[in-house]
Amino acid sequence: MEQHLIVAIKAIIPLFLLIGVGIYIRWQKMLTDTELQHVNSMIFRIFFFCMMFYNMYTTTLATALRPRLIVFTVVSLFVMLLISAVVVCTVEKDNRSRGAMLQALFRSNFVLLGIPLVENIFGSEALAVPTMMIAFISPIYNTVSIFFLEHFRGNGKFFLPETLRVVLKNPMIIGGILGAAFMLLGITVPEPVLKPIRQISSCTSPVALLILGASFRFGEISKEKRNLVIVVLGRLVVIPAVVLGTAYIMGFRGVDFVTLICIFATPCAVASFAMAQQLGSNAVLAGNSVVLSSAFSGITLFGWILLFQMAGAF
């Protein structure tokens, strides 16, 4: 039991210490809101690009590609989305809130928390699998989120070619595609060029987690209490219980199983707040979903890691 506790603690504590430092940075007003926006933009456009490129470039297809994991993840995402849509549309009548709730339930903080979580448990040599999954999951997150946010805004302006164009402009997708292309074609990146890419890649997760903590803000929680309870319980307890339980029964183990924890048991994606704001959804509900699910995930993630580590999943 003690050994399992140590594994869970080592996986979780570094993540939330970094987030805590970010909260302290905000409390001390070391960065203004404008500066946070600029740093966020830099992380998104430069750091994530380098991380995706480097992780894809330095892996081998045989060790990274997991067809069974990809199929299970995609099917699980859409099954959970369908069930979430039925529940949300039954209990909530306001379309703007429906869109925000669905995005919060569907879209996890896999990119920011998944990579460091896998690294904390297995080391940097295991990052090829979650990086490969980001290349598949990120376009799905973006495309589906735009679809139902536009739908519940009520203007019916969803246009697939334009959505795909936006998705393909995502720096993570570009970095992943370029890294995979260089790896598959055998193109060698000179060490003087690869070294700074590697250095930026190695500091992406810590810097992103710091800024995640510094970006937290509380809105009008009391007005959205019922919806927030549904989102937080669904995102952190119900969805992980169903998906991870099924994955365990189906025999997923090791880094594949921990990658599934990162996809299905992490809190609402930070990007969901900005997207809800831009597409006319309930931004206050979206923002508070991120804050509260992130706060409680310190407990639930620890619990899921401890439970399945004791069960021999990794």
Automatic annotation (TrEMBL):
- TM ranges are 6-27, 39-57, 69-92, 104-122, 128-149, 170-190, 196-216, 228-251, 257-276, 283-307
Any single Gene Ontology cellular-component annotation:
plasma membrane
Q: What is its main location?
A: membrane
User: What is the protein's given name?
Assistant: AEC family transporter
The UniProt keywords, alphabetically, are: Cell membrane, Membrane, Transmembrane, Transmembrane helix, Transport
What taxonomic classification does the UniProt entry list for its organism? Bacteria, Bacillati, Bacillota, Negativicutes, Acidaminococcales
User: Which family does the record assign?
Assistant: Belongs to the auxin efflux carrier (TC 2.A.69) family.
Q: Name one GO biological process term.
A: transmembrane transport
